Amino acid sequence: MAQISPHHPGSSSQRRERHTDARTDNMEDFRIHSMLLTGSDRGIGLGLVEQFLQLPYPPQLIFATCRHPDGPEGQVLKEMARRYSNVSTLVLLQLDVTDPHSIKEAAKKVEERVAGCGLNLLINNAAIACETTLSSENAQNMLSVYATNTTGPMLVCQAFLPLLKTAARKSRQSGMSCSKAAVVNMSSSYGSISLVDGWEWRQDISYRCSKAALNMLTCCQSLGYGPWGILCVSIHPGGVKTHLGVEQGVLSVATSTRGIIQVLSRLSAQDNGTFLDWEGKTVAW
């Protein structure tokens, strides 16, 4: 089987600008009580945790989950929790998105900590990729990548849906927003069927198919969860340059994650079921 590794594909110049309105980038207005993020121990996930902690008003509760919280990467999160303990409570939890028991146990722990307030923001970030081609791709790779990138986010959303519903019901805000209740699926322009972005760079068949399927999941969730007041979107983080050194793009993790949070702060009902990038531009399906 091909080597499996976290993956952050390149962006595309073919994306069109999304509709914008008078909403500002004033991050002081972006206030979330609680959020949970999967795959938070490296790359985009770790960068998002740090950027949320640096907001003028950080979330009161940040649940940072990963498969091995006691591993080396988990130590970085533990140090971050100590460093920002005066502004936010960062809770490190074990959660393997391919393990239903692990997901349910994490949901129980989150339910205990939020004390009836629900969960405002769920970010499905955990993902893997196999560097494969049309000729080298196989069933084992496809099943493994789908389990993490597509089935995982579906199972996580199912487990945390009651907490998202509670947050939406108890919120005093009208409309939809990430401060009220939202599901953010970290997708990729590689999952765009019309763009087939970066094909000359990497084929990554299983990754592309899994992200295209994740985008469909987002659309289904927007229809199913929308009536409960839960906003659902797919986000492309851009071509992020990480410590792996295999990505085509030149974006730093900090640049990408700062942009993502600015986009999240502006989302409303008009964005439910959409596919946006880290700058807020619409990505073609």
Characterization of this structure:
There is one protein chain. This protein is α/β, with parallel strands linked by helices and 285 residues long. Helix content is 37%, strand content 13%. It is built from six helices and nine strands; from the N terminus they run E-E-H-E-H-E-H-E-E-H-E-H-E-H-E. The protein has helices spanning 43-53, 72-83, 100-114, 139-170, 205-225, 253-266; strands at 4-5, 34-37, 61-66, 89-94, 121-124, 129-130, 182-186, 231-236, 275-277. The strands form two sheets. Strands 4-3-2-5-7-8-9 form a seven-stranded parallel β-sheet, sandwiched between helices. A two-stranded antiparallel ribbon has the order 1-6. Helix 1 (43-53) packs across helix 6 (253-266), helix 3 (100-114) runs parallel beside helix 4 and helix 4 (139-170) packs parallel to helix 5 (205-225). The longest helix is centred in the middle third of the chain and has 32 residues, at 139-170. The radius of gyration is 17 Å and the shape is globular. The two termini are 29 Å apart.
| Percentage beta strand | 5-15%
User: What's the β-strand tally?
Assistant: 9
Distance between termini? 29 Å
- What gross morphology would you assign? globular
Q: Report the total helices.
A: 6
In N-to-C order, the SSE pattern is EEHEHEHEEHEHEHE
Mean pLDDT: 89
| Rg (CA only) | 17 Å
Strand order across the biggest sheet?
4-3-2-5-7-8-9
Largest sheet: 7 strands, parallel
Which secondary-structure class do the elements indicate? alpha/beta
Low-confidence parts lasting 5 or more residues at pLDDT below 50?
A: 1-24
